[in-house]
Each structure stands twice: as C-alpha cells, then as structure tokens.
C-alpha cells in the first residue's frame, strides 16, 4: 500500500530523475538537504568516493555531465520504505574518447524532511563499448 508520504517521496524521486536527464543542477540540488552526502559509484573508499555538503555534492553531480555529456538515466523504477528509498535505472553515456557505457544501476537514498539526505549510487561494472 502506498501512503500519501510514499506518494510524495515517489514524486520527489521522479523529479530528481527528470532533473538528471535534463542536466539541471539547480533542480537536482533542490531535492537535496543542506547537509547532503553523495557516495559515488567509483573511488578509493569502500563506499566509492564520498562527497559531503551542498557544494561538494553539487560539484560531483555536475562532473557526471562533464564526463558523459549525453548522460541519461532511463527506465526508472522507484521504491519507498519509511525514510529509505531506491531508484533503479539504466545509465547511458558517451565518454570523451567515444566509448559508451550502458549499465543498470540503483541509488539507495536516505530521506529527511521531504528531501534526499544521502544518495548512495551503485552501477553494474560493465565494460565500455
């Protein structure tokens, strides 16, 4: 059963996903809390690379479009359970060297006050083609 709170959170996740596809950094950040955290899909740490605070998260999000100017996240499916949520999607993008990435991924979110507090991203490790 979807509660009103779940329905509101699902709209937040859809808005967030749409902002990624529009490459709209301001709309993305409007979905995040002031104390947001982003755990990227890759990096030197067990959690990938961690970015903390609005400015660091904003820069990290912006770099996704710099690394993949045509990046898209499609076939989105969203789930909500209390203050946690999951979005599944297919990431597609072309790197500067012309190789393409296409892989299924998930974001695990922690929510606070109607916004995203933590975005923890996971993507299949599929070779570029």
Describe the model.
With 129 residues, the protein is α+β, with helices and mostly antiparallel strands. The protein has one domain: Nuclear Transport Factor 2, Chain: A, CATH 3.10.450. 30% of the residues lie in helices and 42% in strands. It has 3 helices and 6 strands, in the order ααββαββββ. The chain has helices at 4-22, 25-30, 54-67, and strands spanning 32-39, 50-52, 72-81, 84-94, 100-112, 115-123. The chain has a 6-stranded mixed beta sheet. The longest helix is centred in the first third of the chain and has 19 residues, at 4-22. It is globular and about 40 Å long. The N and C termini lie far apart (41 Å). The mean pLDDT is 94.
Q: Quote the beta fraction.
A: 35-45%
Helix run count? 3
Structural class comes to alpha+beta
Pattern of helices and strands: HHEEHEEEE
Q: Termini, distance in Å?
A: 41 Å
Q: Could you report the average pLDDT, rounded to the nearest whole number? A: 94
InterPro entries: NTF2-like_dom_sf, SnoaL-like
Domain SnoaL-like: 14-116
Pfam family, one: SnoaL_2
Protein name: Transcriptional regulator
């Amino acid at each position: 059963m979807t509660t009103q709170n779940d329905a509101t959170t699902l709209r937040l996740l859809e808005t967030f996903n749409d902002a990624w596809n529009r490459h709209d950094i301001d709309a993305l950040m409007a979905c995040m809390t002031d104390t947001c955290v982003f755990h990227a899909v890759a990096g030197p740490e067990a959690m990938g690379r961690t970015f903390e605070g609005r400015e660091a998260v904003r820069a990290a999000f912006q770099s996704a479009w710099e690394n993949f100017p045509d990046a898209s996240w499609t076939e989105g499916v969203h789930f909500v359970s209390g203050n946690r949520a999951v979005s599944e999607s297919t990431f597609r993008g072309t790197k500067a060297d012309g190789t393409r990435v296409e892989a299924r991924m998930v974001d695990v979110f922690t929510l606070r006050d109607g916004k995203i507090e933590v975005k923890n991203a996971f993507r299949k490790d599929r070779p570029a083609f």
